[in-house]
Amino acid sequence: MTRPLSELHGPVRALFSDVDGTMTTGDRIEASTYEALERLGEAGIPLIMVTGRPAGFAHAFMKMTPVLATVSENGGVTFIREGRKLHKLYGVPAASLPEWRRRMHEVAVDVMSRVPGARLSSDSKYREVDLAIDWNEECSLTREEAETCVHLINKAGFLASRSSIHVNFGPPHFDKLSACMTVVRQVLGSDANDLSPYVFVGDALNDAPMFRGFPNSVGVANVKHWWDELSHKPAYLTERAEGAGLRETIAHLMTLTAR
Fold first, then answer.
1. Which residues lie below 8 Å from residue 108, measured CB to CB, with a gap of 6+?
2. Is the pTM for the entire model greater than 0.90?
3. Which fold has domain 94-170?
4. CATH architecture for segment(s) 3-91+174-258
5. How do residues 178-212 score in pLDDT, each as one tens digit?
């Protein structure tokens, strides 16, 4: 049963946060949200971004924000900070990528021919592992049409998941949760089978694996937009939506740190 955020207890070792619709409000990260992220880091709670956005975006996030790691492409590419350098991990062996990408582009062409109005997302050119069909960012497909895309892609042997804006798909070997477990092992030095010291906050259907895997998972209020479609629901829910909900979560975590 989902409970109010006020019932979440610590201690908390790190915050894993989705980006679109969670960290952003509309299409941007507000100054107040960025300030909250800075305060979180100063309090000793590292931040890990977890997004369906491409590796190119994730590289920029790592350079411009105080994050310890960024999971991008729904787990396809993960960047880890090692001093001044960034280390990159792929969700599949790098040598297999050209063949995967060839097959994925074939599937994308087939889907776009069968679902009128569907097209590759404008950020697909910055992706290294997965691809994304735009259904609700610059395109305007119905939920039913987006789910048709998901069905066709899954039937072709790939793993597809619908976010609030895209249908992301890639090889069936990774998702957000599997990549985050790698971060817990390799960066935070903990047992990835015990995620209870960590909090994840998200808002969309592709966050369902995270809501399932993190005992302390939080949904910002706009997750209710997809509530009946979520296969796994967050353990806690904020009162406010988008970036305000993330700030609400950070403020609560700060009170736990102060105790």
1. 120, 131, 133
2. yes
3. Hypothetical Protein Ta0175; Chain: A, domain 2 (3.90.1070)
4. 3-Layer(aba) Sandwich (3.40)
5. 999 999 999 999 999 999 999 999 999 999 999 99
